[in-house]
């Protein structure tokens, strides 16, 4: 029974932290390559009626994002993160810590049940 919990926790950790993160990273790099952005700009400008109006704001937004990425997230000395994003970050870290602590607790309880109580029965 403890193998199932450990296997599930390990598989979840590997799936989320390693596999999913790398797939997302490669997707973002692929999509935001210069060639794909130019293609996207062309497609946006070809949308009937609203395309030309969307093109300039899209290009401006992407330029700001590039500048922000290259400057490490800082724009003109302004704080790069809002209070809301900090709160969300603390919440996510808390959830991860809770998951790790509950996984260790579950494994410890199973170890105790298998080893300590098993010796008492013998």
Structure description:
By secondary structure, the chain is mainly α. It has four helices and no strands. The protein has helices at 2-31, 34-45, 51-70, 83-121. The longest helix has 39 residues, at 83-121. The protein is elongated. The two termini are 20 Å apart.
Short summary of the structure?
The protein has 122 residues and is mostly helical. The protein has helices at residues 2-31, 34-45, 51-70, 83-121.
Helix and strand layout, with pairings?
Elements lengths: L1 H30 L2 H12 L5 H20 L12 H39 L1
What would the keywords be for this entry?
122 residues, mainly alpha, 4 helices, elongated
Shape: elongated
Tell me the helix content: over 70%
**Termini Cα gap:** 20 Å
Radius of gyration: 24 Å
Mean pLDDT: 80
Largest sheet: none
Tally of extended strands? Answer: 0
Residue fraction in strands: under 5%
H/E topology pattern: HHHH
Structural class: mainly alpha
Counting H and I runs of at least 4 residues, what is the number of helices?
4
């Amino acid at each position: 029974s403890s193998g199932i919990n450990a296997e599930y926790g390990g598989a979840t950790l590997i799936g989320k932290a390693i596999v999913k993160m790398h797939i997302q990273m490669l997707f973002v790099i692929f999509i935001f390559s210069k060639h794909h952005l130019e293609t996207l700009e062309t497609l946006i400008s070809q949308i009937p009626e609203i395309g030309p109006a969307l093109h300039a704001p899209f290009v401006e937004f992407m330029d700001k994002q590039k500048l922000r990425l290259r400057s490490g997230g800082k724009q003109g000395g302004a704080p790069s993160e809002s209070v809301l994003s900090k709160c969300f970050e603390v919440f996510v870290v808390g959830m991860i810590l809770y998951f790790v602590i509950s996984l260790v607790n579950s494994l410890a309880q199973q170890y105790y049940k298998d080893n300590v109580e098993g010796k008492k029965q013998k």
